[in-house]
């Protein structure tokens, strides 16, 4: 792997764009104290060894929000380098199956429409997810 010029920690993250029956998307606000604290994001988390992206997304959503989801089609994969970290976000459309979302590992959660997403402050890498969602409206499973 010769493309690495400087070695930043690299996290591979499964990200869920969770839709409900009212065509709303679930977003959560990161805890104020942590990295990118106070910003909104699409929920998800770091892949564990031996896990598929789909398994990672399902597990993380259950751990962070207490709900069951169905992981659907792949939306986009984003490689983004922040000053202290490189992330690869693998984003899937998901459908809310059961449970009431709870803010277990975040400060706040909200169901919003696609049009409302631009009213919230997201980390830079998430802006590409919103753009992909707007281009592909109606293309979810």
Automatic annotation (TrEMBL):
Names of required cofactors: Mg(2+)
Organism this protein belongs to: Calothrix parietina FACHB-288
Keyword DNA repair assigned: yes
Known EC number: 3.6.1.55
Keywords: DNA damage, DNA repair, DNA replication, Hydrolase, Magnesium, Metal-binding, Mutator protein
Identification of the protein by name: 8-oxo-dGTP diphosphatase
Family designation: Belongs to the Nudix hydrolase family.
InterPro entries from the UniProt entry: Mutator_MutT (IPR003561), MutT-like (IPR047127), MutY_C (IPR029119), Nudix_hydrolase (IPR020476), NUDIX_hydrolase-like_dom_sf (IPR015797), NUDIX_hydrolase_CS (IPR020084), NUDIX_hydrolase_dom (IPR000086)
Matches recorded under Pfam families: NUDIX_4
Catalytic activity line of the entry: 8-oxo-dGTP + H2O = 8-oxo-dGMP + diphosphate + H(+)
Domain Nudix hydrolase: 8-135
Lineage: superkingdom: Bacteria
Enzyme class: hydrolase
């Amino acid at each position: 792997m010769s493309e690495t010029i400087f070695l930043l920690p690299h996290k591979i993250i499964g990200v869920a764009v969770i839709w409900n029956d009212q065509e709303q998307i679930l977003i959560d606000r990161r805890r104020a104290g942590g990295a990118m604290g106070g910003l909104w994001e699409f929920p998800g988390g770091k892949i564990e060894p031996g896990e598929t992206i789909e398994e990672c997304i399902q597990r993380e959503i259950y751990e962070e929000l207490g709900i069951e989801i169905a992981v659907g089609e792949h939306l986009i994969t984003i490689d983004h380098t922040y000053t202290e970290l490189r992330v690869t976000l693998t984003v899937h459309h998901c459908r809310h199956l059961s449970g009431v979302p709870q803010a277990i590992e975040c400060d706040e959660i909200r169901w919003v429409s696609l049009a409302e997403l631009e009213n919230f402050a997201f980390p830079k890498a998430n802006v590409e997810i919103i753009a992909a969602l707007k281009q592909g409206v109606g293309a979810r499973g």
